[in-house]
Design goal:
This protein has 37 residues and is mostly helical. 92% of the residues lie in helices and 0% in strands. The protein contains 1 helix and no strands. The radius of gyration is 16 Å and the shape is rod-shaped.
Length: 37
């Protein structure tokens, strides 16, 4: 296995995880606004 290839895959996974986390945050934010505003 090539280390640089693994590093690239890890970076892609982190980006996906970050996008998912941001989507979750937006969902929670809109839910909170819906309930309390």
């Amino acid at each position: 296995m090539v280390k640089t290839h693994n590093r690239g895959e890890d970076g892609t996974f982190k980006k996906l995880k970050l996008q998912f986390y941001c989507a979750e945050l937006n969902e929670v934010k809109s839910w909170v606004e819906y309930c309390f505003l």
